[in-house]
TrEMBL record:
Segments forming domain HTH gntR-type: 1-50
Keyword terms, alphabetized: DNA-binding, Transcription, Transcription regulation
GO MF terms, alphabetically ordered: DNA binding; DNA-binding transcription factor activity
Protein name, entry field: GntR family transcriptional regulator
Pfam families in UniProt: FCD (PF07729), GntR (PF00392)
Gene3D superfamilies with a match to the protein in the record: GntR ligand-binding domain-like, Winged helix-like DNA-binding domain superfamily/Winged helix DNA-binding domain
Length: 200
């Protein structure tokens, strides 16, 4: 995703990606429907800037919806616990290579798969669709680039505990761990960067 305020010109995007203008136009419409692009009169499409309040709302929704999904996944007993444990292990293996930018991208990918597996196990069609709209916001996807090693370890420990709760069929435990997990992610994302603190 491009930086907030970037103008999206159909012809330039079509040329950049080797596409006709029709799929580019459709992609811009989809991004507009998802709230990631706004169409400004006499300027065209622009990437939306998300405020701290927007992220508070996004993580508030995640806290409610993902906790509900985790509770359901535990109570229904349909989750692939072995796969959840594999994903936990794969994320933990990335801790030794955090100096490589690819490690954060891989953690993000594995984390998305972990959470999506819980969403699928905890809901039919509507819940996973709602959660995909909330979580697919590009800046939310890049949260792991802001994590310290301590925060990553805490997050991975919460993944393990969440998996244990789901395997135990304990909905209240799964709900509580997921809520704590999401709220910790919110605190990390909204924490000012060092240069932001200096500017205040």
């Amino acid at each position: 995703m491009r930086p907030a305020g970037t103008r999206l010109r159909e012809e330039q995007l079509a040329e950049d990606y080797g596409l006709s203008r029709t799929p580019v136009r459709e992609a811009i419409r989809r991004l507009q429907a998802d709230g990631l692009v706004q169409v400004v009169p006499n300027r065209g499409a622009e990437v939306v800037s998300l405020s701290a309040e927007d992220f508070e709302e996004i993580f508030g929704l995640r806290s409610v919806l993902e906790s509900y999904a985790a509770r359901n996944a535990a109570l229904r007993g349909d989750a692939d616990v072995a796969r959840l444990r594999e994903l936990c292990g794969a994320m933990e293996q990335q801790l030794g290579r955090l100096d490589d930018d690819g490690a954060h991208d891989e953690i993000t990918r594995l984390n998305m798969e972990f959470h999506q597996a819980i969403h699928q196990a905890g809901g039919r069609r509507l819940l996973p669709e709602l959660l995909s709209k909330v979580i697919e916001v590009p800046l939310v996807r890049r949260t792991f680039h802001r994590y310290t090693s301590v925060e990553l370890n805490r997050s991975f420990t919460q993944h393990r505990e969440l998996t244990d709760a789901i395997e135990a069929g304990d909905g209240d435990w799964a709900h509580a761990v997921m809520q704590s997990h999401v709220l910790a992610a919110r605190a990390t994302l909204l924490r000012p960067e060092p240069e932001e603190e200096e500017a205040q």
